[in-house]
Amino acid sequence: MTKQVVYIISIVLLLSVMTGGCRKKLDDLYYDPDQTVQPSIEKFFTEMLNNDRVRPSYWNIRTFVAMHTGIYTQSLGYLNTTTAYQQNAGYCQDRWNDFYRPGAAANGGNGGIMAHYRLIESLYESLKDEQQKLNAGVFLMAAKVVLYDQASQIVDLWGDIPFSQAGTVSTSGDIVYAAFDNASNIYDVMLDGLKNAALYFSSAQLSTAVHASFGKQDILLNGQFDKWQRYANSIRLRLLMRLSFVNEEKAKAEALNIINNPGLYPLIDGASGYVPASTDVLLQPLSNYVDDLHNALSEVFNYSAPDYMLNTVMKPANDPRIPVLFDKYGRTDGDQFIPNTDYNGLPVSFNAEQQQVNLGRYAILDSATFLFNSKLPGIVITAPEVNFLKAEAWERWGGGDAQAAYETAVRQSIAFYFYLNNISSSTRTPVSSPATAAIDSFLQNDQMKYTGTVNQKLAKIWIQKWLHFGFLQSVQGWAEYRRTKYPVLQFYPSTLPGYELPPSRLVYPSSETSYNTNYATVKDRDVRTGRIFWDVK
């Protein structure tokens, strides 16, 4: 395949990802053909991983999390303005775009998961030499895991999405607008694909040179096959539990098979010892990154400690994570700063004016852990989440020690947030981790202790998982909140007609409603009160 042909295919693939509005400059998308001998699978794979929708970048937190999922989950404080629950069309278009095609980081994120995957797939299929194809297979299989992980989030936000045809071209090279795939069917494809990918990484045998090449390009897991296997199995477990109320038979059989056979299906669970930096799947910031989140969270007053999380869940239990999640803050009276004497979340029952004039009287997100920490990684999946999933599965269906999994998850969550505090680039002295005895005592608190009915135990699992997700993983938090209906949050009703409460799904962006002729097949279901297929409780 010549340089010119590969370049043309690359550009056509990018253009065919059915996104209509706000086009990024083509000059920013890919390599200059006069300077590049051959676009490579390896480089496209690295670009696929380099995703500012995974990292807590300014743009992602400011325009998507702080205005949408952080509010819908109450994992951030926010002002009860009349438009608080109204979806921002432009910012959601950006979020959609950044999955389907790559863009300049300055315009919201690089990513382009689907476009990069189709390029990798196309180049892989064009290989004629069997050894080259064998060597390239590791990049294709890892790319599939990333695609399915990211695509599941788009499904969880919107429902039916263009998937199987997205990024493809017709035999004539014409742009083809992709059909909307059924969300449940997409889940089936992803579950099968993740199972196959995990199997591949459990037994793949590649030369030292190929393994080294993969490790060099793999900025997520540094070429660790064992970690890729665990990543694929863990995302599969997440998706199985996500659909467990709509297809319990399938979820029960497959989830229990995974968690009860760790030798065959190793997970990101910290079973051999939990060290967040090496156990969890985290996308580290680039070496030249110096920004932080204080502007992203202060520009729309989202830095306040959320009411339910702090006041109802954490304070009554004397949660040891409070000092690394929040600052007490304070207010200025004349020339004097008056610090608050306790941690208190901004009341969600206040109207916007009451909230704004009283901001200084309430706690805020911790400055070292969150606001001024340029070392925050992008969180893909962590051991605490996996152990909460195991706890839920065993509590509902038996076969394992649900209490042990729950307590392990809470202990790991504490360790995780102290880790984020301790890697901070802030000048504040890191907070010392709590002693084991203190955590033991915390777990025996009436609010935390694993006692009660099955439903009461499940509620504890789900609330603690929601707390662990926080705003950094509020996309996952929103999905789980809708699936489980926990925690039971109260929202201040907006007076804007049609937007009184948060939505149960995002409506499609204008690129689809205006340009994709296949939109007619989903138009009747494109309402903010619609439900994703797994949302049946």
UniProtKB/TrEMBL annotation:
SUPFAM superfamilies in the record: TPR-like
Pfam families given in the database record: SusD-like_2 (PF12771)
InterPro entries xref list: SusD-like_2 (IPR041662), TPR-like_helical_dom_sf (IPR011990)
Protein name: SusD/RagB family nutrient-binding outer membrane lipoprotein
Origin species: Niastella vici
